[in-house]
C-alpha cells in the first residue's frame, strides 16, 4: 500500500485543545508566581525516552532527533537548561517506574494519555492525536481484526495498540507481545504472525523499510500523546511544559516542528 500520511483532521494537536492551552497559560502567567521546577540534577532537564520510535525519537548521524526531541528541547530552553536524554524501556516509562524512581524529570516518548497511566504519572496537556492501524503482508487476505480469529497478532508491549488488541481482537486470536516496534516488523515480515498493530504516525516508516507491508484497517481510538512527570511530584514543571506548548502553538513554531517530521500533516488550528 502507498505511504499513508496522518489524516488532516487527526494528525497533530487539535486546534481547540491548544487554543484552550494558550488561554490557560496566559491565565497562569497572570495569576501565579514564576514556576520553580524541582530537578534531579542541577542545570539539566533529564528526559526519559524510548529509542527508536521514528519520527518521534531516534538517532540520525549519531545525534538524537525527532518530534518529541524538538518539543522537549523547547521546554529545556525555556528553563535555560540542557536536555539530557535517558533511553529507557517503554514499559518502565508508561508504568511510571522511571519517573517515580527519579531516573528523569520528564518523559517524552509518544506516550498516550489514559486512565491507568494517569494513576501513576502526571500528564501535561495533550500535544498530538494518534490512531492505530492494522498491518499485514500484501499477500494476506485479512482486512480487519475479525479476520484474525484463530490467528496471531503482533503488538508492542505496553502500548495503546496492545490494549486495543486485547479489547477488540477475537477471543481466539493469539496476541504476541514484543519489546520494540522493530520486533513487530520482523514478526510480520517473517510471517511468524498474521498481522501487527501500529500507531498510524509511525507506520509509514515501517512500510518504507518493508515494502511488502500494507495497512488494511485504521482504528480511531481517540488517543492523545502527552509528556509526563513524577506522580504528585512537580506541578511547576507541568506548568512550564503546558505554557511552552501553548506558546509554540500561538507563535506558529509548533506547526514548523510538525511539518519537519510529518510533511503531509497540518494542524487544525
Automatic annotation (TrEMBL):
Q: Does the keyword Nucleotide-binding apply?
A: no
Solute-binding protein family 3/N-terminal domain boundaries? 44-265
CDD domains, alphabetized: PBP2_peptides_like (cd13530)
MF (Gene Ontology): ligand-gated monoatomic ion channel activity
Cell compartments where the protein resides: Cell envelope
Endpoints of the signal sequence = 1-22
Q: Where is the Ionotropic glutamate receptor C-terminal domain?
A: 44-264
Q: Which domain of life is it from?
A: Bacteria
Q: Which keywords does this chain's UniProt record carry?
A: Signal
- Quote the cellular component terms of the Gene Ontology held in the record: cell envelope; membrane
InterPro entries, A to Z: Iontro_rcpt_C (IPR001320), SBP_3_CS (IPR018313), Solute-binding_3/MltF_N (IPR001638)
Q: Family, per the entry?
A: Belongs to the bacterial solute-binding protein 3 family.
Can you name this protein?
Amino acid ABC transporter substrate-binding protein
Amino acid at each position: 500500500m502507498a505511504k499513508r500520511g496522518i489524516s488532516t483532521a487527526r494528525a497533530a494537536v487539535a486546534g481547540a485543545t491548544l487554543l484552550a492551552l494558550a488561554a490557560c497559560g496566559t491565565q497562569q502567567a497572570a495569576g501565579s508566581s514564576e514556576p520553580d521546577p524541582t530537578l534531579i540534577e542541577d542545570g539539566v532537564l533529564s528526559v526519559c525516552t524510548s529509542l527508536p520510535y521514528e519520527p518521534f525519537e531516534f538517532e540520525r548521524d549519531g545525534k538524537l532527533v525527532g518530534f518529541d526531541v524538538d518539543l522537549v528541547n523547547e521546554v529545556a530552553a525555556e528553563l535555560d537548561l540542557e536536555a539530557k536524554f535517558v533511553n529507557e524501556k517503554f514499559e518502565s516509562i508508561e508504568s511510571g517506574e522511571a519517573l517515580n524512581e527519579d531516573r528523569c524529570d520528564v518523559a517524552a516518548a509518544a506516550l498516550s494519555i489514559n486512565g491507568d497511566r494517569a494513576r501513576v504519572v502526571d500528564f501535561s496537556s495533550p500535544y498530538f492525536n494518534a490512531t492505530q492501524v492494522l498491518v499485514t503482508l500484501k499477500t494476506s487476505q485479512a482486512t480487519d481484526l475479525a479476520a484474525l480469529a484463530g490467528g496471531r497478532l503482533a503488538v508492542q508491549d505496553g502500548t495503546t495498540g496492545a490494549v486495543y488488541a486485547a479489547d477488540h481482537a477475537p477471543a481466539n486470536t493469539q496476541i504476541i507481545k514484543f519489546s520494540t516496534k522493530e520486533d513487530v516488523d520482523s514478526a510480520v515480515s517473517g510471517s511468524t504472525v498474521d498481522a501487527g498493530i501500529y500507531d498510524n504516525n509511525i507506520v509509514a516508516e515501517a512500510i518504507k523499510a518493508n515494502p511488502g507491508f500494507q495497512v488494511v484497517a485504521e482504528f480511531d481510538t481517540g488517543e492523545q500523546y502527552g509528556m509526563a512527570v513524577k506522580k504528585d511530584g512537580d506541578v511547576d514543571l507541568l506548568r512550564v511544559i503546558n505554557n511552552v506548548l501553548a506558546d509554540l502553538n500561538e507563535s506558529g513554531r509548533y506547526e514548523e516542528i510538525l511539518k519537519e517530521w510529518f510533511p503531509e500533516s497540518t494542524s487544525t488550528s
